[in-house]
Amino acid sequence: VDISYVDNVADAHLLAGRDLLSLAKSAGKPYFISQGEPVNLWSWINDLLVRLGIPPVTRRIGFRRAYLAGWLLEIVYKTCRLPGEPPMTRFVAEQLATSHWFSLDNARADLGYSPRVATADGLDRLVAALGKKKA
Fold this sequence. Notes:
By secondary structure, the chain is mostly helical. The protein is about 55% helix and about 0% strand.
């Protein structure tokens, strides 16, 4: 999947703002902003968990069961008027079961966007920030 480090997203917003104040090539156009290097979601999540001292995810559930669980939880939450979102939804099941990443070509061409913080550095920063909150 594609992930985005917050500093890179902020940079893209600033680049878009500058463009809108000058050439306005980006006016009305959507852009995908990410690290530019897709990652294996479960490997990335497990790396994060291990680095935070949390056991990695080792159990699996098939897509059909996850989708059914999402459907049932959506019904329970709606029927019982429970607050918030269900812990699993059909949408989440689909997203977790599907590989997807997007091209940065338009953001590079129109905005001059390039990820400043690499994926590995972003993960290091995230672990450091979460470690500080834990203490």
